[in-house]
Each structure stands twice: as C-alpha cells, then as structure tokens.
Amino acid sequence: MAGAGISTPSGIPDFRSPGSGLYSNLQQYDIPYPEAIFELTFFFQNPKPFFTLAKELYPGNFRPNLTHYFLRLLHEKGLLLRLYTQNIDGLERVSGIPASKLVEAHGTFASATCTVCLRRCPGEDFWADVLADRVPCCGVCTGIVKPDIVFFGEALPERFLLHVVDFPMADLLVVLGTSLEVEPFASLSEGVRNSVPRVLINQDVVGTFAWRPRSRDVVQLGDVVHSVEKLVKLLGWTEDMRDLVHQETEKVLRMGRKGPSAA
Ligand code: OAD
Ligand code: ZN
Fold first, then answer.
1. Which of 37, 128, 134, 210 is the most buried (most CB within 10 A)?
2. Residues lining ligand 1, CB < 6 A?
3. Where is the catalytic site (predicted)?
C-alpha cells in the first residue's frame, strides 16, 4: 500500500506534512480549505485550482525514485501480488509496473470523463487544454471534462474491489509513505490475516500501526528512500537495484536524445 510519501523524494509534495504538504500551501492553489481541491461542489464553482494541480503533475515533469523501483523489483522477482496506491502522479506506471499489478485507488490522469454527458475522453485531448491553462470542455455538450481522479464522496474504481481477494491471500503487507487517514483505503491495512507481518515504512507511526498494532508489525521510521535502501541491502538486492535504476536511466536518456527537445 502506498501514498504520497513515496513520491516526495521525486519532488512532489505530499498532502498532510506540515509546511511542505499541499494542504499547508493553499494560497498557491487559491482554495478556501484543504479538501476543496478534491470536492465536486467546489470544483463546479471553480475548477481552476484542481487543473493547476493537474498541470503540475503533468506526466513527464517528475521521475520515479528508488522507492518506485523497489516496488518494480518486487514485481520482477515475482513477489508483488498487487500494488495499491493512492497516488495520482502515475509514477508507478512510469517505473514499469504493469497495469495488471496496480490498483490506482484514487484514480488516474490517464483518462477523463465529461461531468455532464459522461462521455469518456482520452488523456491527450485534455492535456493540451490543461497545459494552456484552459479548463477542458466536452466536444459534444461543452460540460467540464474531469480527469478520472476520485474526489471525496465519489466511488473508487472497480479494480479496488480486488482487495477482497488480494488481502486475505497476502503473505506480507508493506505500507509506504501514507498517513492512513483516508478511508476506505486506510482500512485495507487491517485486511491481511492476523498471522501476516505488516511492515510500515514511513516518517511517523500512523493509523492502525499506532492505535491497533499487531504483534508481528515492523515499523521502520525515517526517510522512505533511506529505509528502502536498507531493506534492499538486507535482501541482498543492491546489485539488482543498481542494474534496474541504470537500465531505466539509460532508457530516459535514449528517449531524450530521440525526443523533440534533443535538438
Ligand atoms: P499524506 O500527505 O496524508 O501522508 C503522507 C505520509 O508520508 C505522511 O505520514 C508523511 O510523514 C510521510 N512522508 C512524506 N514524505 C516522506 C519521506 N520522504 N519518507 C518517509 N515518509 C514520508 O498522503 P496520503 O496518505 O497519500 O486524495 O493521502 C491520502 C489521500 O489524501 C490522497 O490520495 C489524496 C488526499 O486527499 C486524492 O488524491 C483523491
Ligand atoms: Zn459532454
């Protein structure tokens, strides 16, 4: 299970960290209170703040960090049953984890839907508007087109239901970089069997790890990248990790040379 804390080392602020979190920097987005940015009522009054955030998270602005690549390595080694993420930055996909292994519980910018006629729009169509600071509108009915990000009160994507089969099956639960404050996601952390060890890798002890700890819980506090490096070393995967990061960096460099900016 992952949250915004796995992407802060990539330069994306989380939500609730005092000072640096998005919810402490409201004036930048022109929102009256933190959650407004993900509330439908506010969105229909003023969709601009949400699209300012969307523009910032434009795919390509940020790169995965060691944490994302560690999760990719778990997959490469056949150990990743599923990655449940609350993040909407898409860095799990960029790191090379296949869609079949992912549950993007709070949605994705990869697609969008008209809020009036519910027509589905491919991502490319609305990014041009977002990048030009325009609110994207439906070509059919002129309704506002909203990326498929889950707002407060909205249903989670259907894939979230996979948790019903995944969690009872897991042999180990790793929870990284989340405050475990948002439901129903937070409660997944109690969905594994009682005998299953749960590992929390986070700046501080959160959620069920604080108020209903289990005897086999392991809590590793501090910076997520530092903790992941330590874990990788314990697993004897340091070289595999180095190779994977090297391979991915080379890929980006090759793309850069071929890309339009190379000239
Ligand atoms: P939060 O901002 O609530 O929590 C991030 C957690 O990561 C905090 O406990 C931080 O201390 C920790 N953290 C941050 N940087 C870290 C680092 N470098 N190393 C270790 N820990 C670090 O973010 P989420 O739990 O993901 O909803 O928030 C859940 C949901 O609330 C989000 O998905 C978002 C928001 O409303 C939507 O986007 C719809
Ligand atoms: Zn429409």
1. 37
2. 3-5, 8-9, 14-17, 21, 38, 86, 88, 106, 149-150, 177-179, 181-182, 202-204, 206, 223-224
3. 106
